[in-house]
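Re: the pair you flagged

First of the two:
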Amino acid sequence: MKVIIQPSQLSGIVRAPASKSSMQRACAAALLNIGETSIYNPGHSNDDKSALDIIQKLGAMVEFRGDDLLIKSAGVNPVGEEINCGESGLGIRMFTPLVALSNKKITINGEGSLLTRPMHFFDEILPKLGVKIKMNEGKLPIEIQGPLQPATIEVDGSLSSQFLTGLLMAYGASLNPSEGGTLDSENSTVTIKVNNLKSKPYIDLTLDVMKQFGMNVPENRNYEEFVFQREPINQLTNQPIHYTVEGDWSGGAFLLVAGAIAGPITIRGLDLTSTQADKAIVDALMAANAGIAIEAKGIKIHSAPMTGFYFDATDCPDLFPPLVALAAYCNGDSTIKGVSRLAHKESNRAITLQEEFGKMGVKIDLTDDIMTVHGGIGVKGATVHSRHDHRIAMACAVAALKAEGETTIEEAGAVKKSYPDFYNDLEKLGADVSLNNKFKLYE
C-alpha cells in the first residue's frame, strides 16, 4: 500500500501506543507463570499478535476481556510441533530459549526479513545447556529439543540483548520450583557471563518484568554477570499477576519528533521513569534545542529553530530513524554514534536511511560507527520506499510533515509491525494523510 503525505501543521493531544517490548516480555512471563495473568493496555501490533500466538502454541490459554487480556498457563507445554515468530526479532530470540524448556521437538520459523537474519548464537549456546538443535546454516527454520538445563555459560552480548532476555527468563523459570523448575544440581548458583553487552536498558526492562511476575531474578553484577540463586522449595506462591503494559517510547519518539518539526502537540502515556532505552529521545531533543516541556499530564512539544546535535545511540539503535528525521530539520550537522547496531534490523538501516532520505534531499555520511546528517538545507517531498521496515516508513512520514511538496511512501503498511495506528494518529493531529488502502491497514 501507498501513503501520501502533504506538508501539514499539527496540533492536539495523542496517546503513545503500547510498548511491544513491554508487551512481548509480559506474554513470555505470563507463559512461564503457573496460574493466571491479567494484562492491561495490551498492544495489538503484528509483533504483539505473534507473541500471543506463540504462547498459545506453547500451551497458554488467552482470553480477551474487553480491552484487557487474561492468560492462563501451566508453563511451557507445546500443543503442536511448530511455532512461527512472524517478523519479530525479539520474538525469535526471546522465545527460543523458552521453547527449549520443553522436552518436545519443536520447529521454530518466521517470515519476511527474519528468514535472513543471523541466528548462529543459538547453535553456539543452547547445546551447552543440554538442548539438541538443528539449524539452516545459521538461519531459520530451527529445530530444537530440550529440556534446557541451566549452567554457568558465557555469551556475546555485542549483537543483541534479546537472546540474553530469553536466557534470563528461561533460567528464572528453570531455577524456580514454583514455576516447575528443578533443583537437581550440586551448585547453589549458576551464572550467565556476558561480554560487551549492548542495549543495557532493555535488560533492565527484562529484569523489571521478571520481578513484577515473581520470577527468580538474578543478581546483576555490572551487566557482566547475572547470578542466579537456586530458590528453596515452597519459597514462592503462585498468586494472580496483574501487569500494565507501558506506553511505547520507540513509537512515541516519532510522535515527539513530529511535534518538534510541525507541532504544537502533547503526547501522553510515556513514563519518564521507564527502563525503556528509547526514552533517551528526550535527551536528543534537548540537545537539539527542541521546544519541549515535560508536564504532569504529558510531554508538550512545539516547532522551534533547532541546531545540530551529537547523540550516542549504541544502547538505543531503534532511535536512529526518528533521529535522522529530527536531524534533517536542525541547522548544521548532527552526529549519531552506533551505526554498527543497524546491520541486522528489518533492513540494513544505515544504508536504507542514507538512500531513502537522500531521495528527500537530505545528505547522510557513514564513517565506521558514525552517521553524520547534514541538516538545515531543506527537505523535499519525494517517492520513498519503506524497505518493508516499520521504522523507516514512520521516519519518512515524520520528515514529510514540513517537506517541500508531497511525499509518497511505498509499502507504507510496514508500520503494522509495531504501531498499526500510526497514520491514523497523525491524521487526528491534523496531518494531511491519504491512504489508498485504509481498511486493510486498520483491520
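Second of the two:
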Amino acid sequence: MASMSGLLLATTEAVHAVPAGVTALFAILLVAMIAALALEETIHAKKSAIVGVFAGACLVLATVLDLLPFGDVTLPGGHTVKMPVYIPAIDWGVITIILGASLFVEVTSRSGVFTWMAITLTKKSGGDPWKLLLSYGILTVVFSAMLNNVTAMIIIGSLTGVSLTKLQRTDLLLGFLVVEGLLTNVGGLLTLISSVPNIIVGGIAGIGFVQFFLVAVPYVVFATAATLLMGRWRFGIRGLSDEQEKLAAASMVSAFDENESVPSSRFFWFSIAVLVLFVACLAGQSLLPAGLDKLGMGFVALTFAGIVLMAYKHEVDKFYEAVDWDLLAFFAGLFVVINTMEHAQVLAMIGQGIKLVIGLGPNLGAGLLLVASAIASSVTDNIPLAAMLAKILENDPANYAAMAPYWWSVIFGANLGGNITPIGSASTVVAMTIIHKHKLPLTFVGFVKIAALFALVQIIIAVVYVVILSLSGILVV
C-alpha cells in the first residue's frame, strides 16, 4: 500500500512549469476527443481508431513542446531499461485484467457453467423480469466489491444475455445491461479495495478497511435500491402481477434444463472449482503470499486464463479471435491521452480549480467537491485525478481531522463520476461493448441521456449522505 501511494504521489509531483496556453491547448484536445467519441456513429469510426488518432496527436505535440519524460526507465532495484515513453503511460493492470478475464470467461463458458448459473437464477425468479433484475443487480454489486468492476461486468453481462434469451425477453436486455453497468461503480464503493481511487485516497487519508466498510455500506444499499427502482421505471421492467402470466412464466421456466449446455460433467466441475478459486484469488489478492501479492489482479486473471486454456490447448487461437481487441486498443490509447494531459497539467488545472471549493466549509465545500470530482472523473481517468486531489487535501494546512468530509467526497465523486459517460469508467466501457456485441442501439450520446439521471440521483444521495455524516461528526479519518 505504501509503495503504491508513494508511486502515485511521485507521479503527481513530477510536473514542471507549463505555460497556461499549452495547458489550455491540451484541454481543448481532450474536449475534442470526447466530442469525437460522442459522434462515433456519425463519423463511422471505431472508438479505438478515434482515441488512437488523438493519442498520436497528443504524443507528437507533447514531444515538440518537451513535456514528456524521455530517457531510460529505472525499475525497483536500480535496474534501468529502454522503453518508449508511451509504454509506462498505459495502465497495464487494467489491460491484463480485461484480457485475462475475457479469455477466462470465454473458455469456461464452453463448460456450460455460466449458462447453468443463468438458468438457475432464472428458475429461482420464476420467470419474473423484476425479480431477475433484483437478483442480477445485487450480484453485480457483490461481484464489483469482491473482484473489480471490469470482471464483474464481463461475468454478469454474459449471464444476463443467457437468462433473457431463454425467457425470450431480449427486449429488456438493454435495460438490464445499462443498470448493471451503473451498479458496478456503486459496488466499487463498498470496500477499501473495491476500486483504485478507494485504495489511493483511503491509503493517504489513513482510513481503515472496517471503518471504510461501515461508512460506505449504508450508501451502497440506498444507491443500489434507487438505481434498481429507477431501472424498473426507465426501462419498463415490470413484475408479473397477473396470475395467468405467473403460471405461464412458471410453466416456461420449469421446462428449462440447466444441464442442457453441459457437454462434460468433468469439465463442468473443473470450471466450477477454477471459477471459485479465481474469485477467491481476486478477492484476496492482497493476502497472497509475500511477493505474489505485488503481481496484481491482472497477473491473477492471466494465470487463470492460461489454466483453463489448457483444456483447449490445440485450439487456443479460436479464443484469441474472440477477444475484443478494439476495447483493449481503446484503453491503451485513452491511457496515453490521459498521461499527456497529466504532463500538460490539465489534471493539475482541474485539481487547483477544485481546491478553491475546499474553502467553502466542510458542508457546502464537501458537497461541491463531490460534484466537481464526479464531473471531472466522467471525462478523464479517475486514478490520477484521485491521486491529485488526495495530494491537495494532504497538503492543506487545515486541521487534518476536519478534512474527513473532503476525503469522502473525493472517494464518492471519483467512483460515481464513471456513471455519467460511457468512458467515465472501465466497467461502463465494457458494458457498452457488450451492448454493441448484442447489436443493441445505444450511442455515446444515448448512454449519457439515459445514465445522466441515474448518476444525478446517485450523486445527490451521496452529497446528502456525506453532509449528514459530517454534521453528525461520524466522518473521521
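The chain has a mean pLDDT of 79.

-B.
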